[in-house]
């Protein structure tokens, strides 16, 4: 997915939030019909799917929107949600056809029809918000409702094996066309008021990035089944230490993202708590803005990227900063995904190589030390980001080849500035939209959109921008080939070729991959079941 974009707890700092929590009870007595409280440091960019492509927003969307298909807790098998069935047309494999269940409704009473589904996908593409998931829909040429219960997607290529999984991503929530505008993102308060939700929960109270209260939707008919808990409150924290304090004191029931490795080690020893670990696939990496990064020409820029790749010590980042909760990533496709390789280890080794780094720069005529403005985010990716990027700065400068100007920006600003071409070299993270290697490739490598005159990838790195020196038609063809190849062995060979090419061109520098972790009070069940490779945290699984 998704991708990752993103004191005192913000909730505790406001009277409104305090009153809301008093009404719903604390974690210590949440069993008496008061529901559960889940804490997080993730921030919501937008409840409206057209305006967000981040984990904090996805957490809300997972609870309140219905999708055509979805993943049940603990599974990566596509299962009907609002759809009764979805399949490729036997006569024309560029057509993917979904038939809806009958009698579906939004919580506001409006019928949910195929027209709403088609509208939901069209508006994401038409709005093309810089923080939105439009890049995920690059394979979709068009979508239309052929009757009230049938929606037909026309795809750019036949038998696109990844497209069914796109229906489960940040691009997949179904919205009410009677309440969501076709040409702009609906603000959060308006979305809550419109109540155009058909997922397992609706939102009854909302104060953005402070408090969100969810109530079970009795009319939900989908993948997750009936919620096990009628009311769940999401409490947002500005700092991980406050989240840790509240879960340690059992003032909340579950802490999900993002506690530091040191916090987790401490909480694991705390009586009455359990640390649950599941599949993750989270990726941490550096993005290069190919237009703005240092270097007099494309060759010098490439040499600088390769020199940086030769200077990073991932093992040190893993052990010293993250205590092993993150492991070295030697590809943009993390270990564990089918088709993953270690292309960056093959190209640059698994330890810093100053001689190799210096040769890349010397051969391209780059004067050293190279000054690099490196931007990171201190809140969205967890509080250890500061320590992580201080270590990256130290490693790069230890070669004598770089001078790093390290700067940080809070996520609310960061999520607006990096797509706007503000940063030359910057931190991002990625949460998978669906468990497939393509999800770690296509969103980053999609060609320039000539019609909308914008970079096709969500990072706006300018890699593969058509009609520029960074265009890469070879990569575009490789992506097309792997997406439409039904033979697993052949597809994995193409995926390996893509990863090798990425290591050679280095538009991104993978650093670490991590698991999915949550901490729960004893007596809270269902947490581990939802920590799966789909990276969807489902309130429906939780009970106490």
From TrEMBL:
Alphabetized Pfam families for the sequence: SBP_bac_5 (PF00496)
Checking PROSITE patterns in the record gives: PROKAR_LIPOPROTEIN
Start and end residues of each Solute-binding protein family domain? 77-449
Q: Which keywords does this chain's UniProt record carry? A: Signal, Transport
Q: Where is the signal peptide?
A: 1-22
Record carries keyword Acyltransferase: no
**What domain of life?**
Bacteria
Please state where this protein is localized: Cell envelope
Family stated for the protein in its record: Belongs to the bacterial solute-binding protein 5 family.
Protein name (record): Peptide/nickel transport system substrate-binding protein
- Organism the protein comes from: Aeromicrobium panaciterrae
């Amino acid at each position: 997915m998704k991708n990752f974009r993103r004191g005192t707890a913000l909730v505790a700092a406001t009277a409104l939030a305090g009153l809301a929590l008093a009404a719903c009870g604390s974690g210590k007595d949440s069993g008496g019909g008061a529901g559960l409280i889940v804490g997080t440091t993730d921030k919501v960019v937008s409840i409206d799917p057209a305006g967000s492509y981040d984990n904090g927003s996805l957490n809300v969307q997972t609870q309140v929107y219905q999708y055509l298909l979805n993943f049940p807790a603990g599974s990566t098998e596509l299962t009907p949600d609002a759809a009764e069935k979805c399949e490729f047309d036997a006569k024309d494999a560029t057509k993917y056809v979904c038939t809806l269940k009958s009698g579906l409704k939004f919580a506001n009473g409006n019928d949910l029809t195929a027209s709403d589904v088609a509208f939901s996908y069209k508006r994401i593409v038409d709005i093309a918000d810089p923080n939105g998931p439009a890049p995920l829909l690059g394979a979709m040429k068009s979508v239309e409702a052929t009757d009230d219960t049938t929606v037909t997607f026309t795809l750019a290529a036949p038998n696109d094996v990844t497209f069914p999984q796109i229906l489960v991503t940040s691009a997949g929530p179904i919205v009410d066309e009677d309440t969501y505008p076709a040409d702009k993102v609906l603000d959060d308060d308006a979305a809550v008021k419109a109540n155009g939700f058909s997922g397992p929960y609706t939102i009854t109270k909302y104060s953005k990035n402070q408090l969100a209260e969810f109530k079970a939707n009795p009319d939900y008919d989908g993948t997750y089944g009936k919620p096990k808990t009628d009311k769940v409150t999401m409490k947002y924290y500005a700092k991980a230490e406050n989240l840790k304090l509240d879960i340690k004191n059992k003032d909340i029931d579950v802490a999900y993202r993002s506690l530091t490795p040191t916090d987790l080690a401490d909480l694991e020893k705390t009586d009455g708590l359990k640390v649950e670990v599941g599949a993750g696939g989270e990726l941490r990496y550096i993005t290069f803005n190919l237009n703005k990064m240092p270097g007099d020409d494309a060759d010098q820029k490439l040499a600088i990227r390769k020199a940086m790749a030769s200077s990073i010590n991932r093992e040190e980042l893993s052990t010293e900063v993250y205590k092993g909760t993150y492991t070295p990533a030697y590809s943009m496709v993390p270990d564990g995904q089918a088709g993953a390789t270690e292309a960056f280890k093959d190209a640059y080794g698994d330890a810093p190589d100053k001689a190799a780094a210096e040769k890349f720069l010397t051969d391209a005529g780059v004067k050293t030390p190279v000054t690099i403005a490196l931007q990171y985010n201190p809140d969205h990716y967890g509080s250890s980001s500061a320590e992580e990027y201080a270590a990256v700065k130290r490693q790069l400068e230890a070669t004598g080849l770089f001078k790093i100007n390290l700067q940080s920006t809070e996520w609310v600003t960061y999520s607006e500035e990096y797509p706007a071409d503000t940063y030359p070299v910057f931190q991002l993270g990625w949460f998978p939209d669906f468990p497939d290697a393509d999800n770690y490739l296509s969103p980053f490598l999609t060609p320039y959109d000539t019609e909308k005159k914008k970079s096709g990838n969500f990072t706006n790195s300018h890699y593969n921008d058509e009609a520029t020196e960074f265009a890469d038609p070879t990569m575009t063809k490789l992506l097309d080939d792997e997406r439409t190849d039904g033979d697993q062995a052949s597809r994995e060979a193409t995926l390996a070729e893509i990863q090798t090419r990425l290591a050679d061109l280095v538009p991104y520098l993978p650093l670490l991959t991590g698991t999915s972790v949550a901490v729960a009070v004893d007596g809270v069940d269902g947490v581990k079941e939802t920590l799966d490779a789909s990276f969807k945290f489902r309130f429906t699984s939780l009970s106490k």
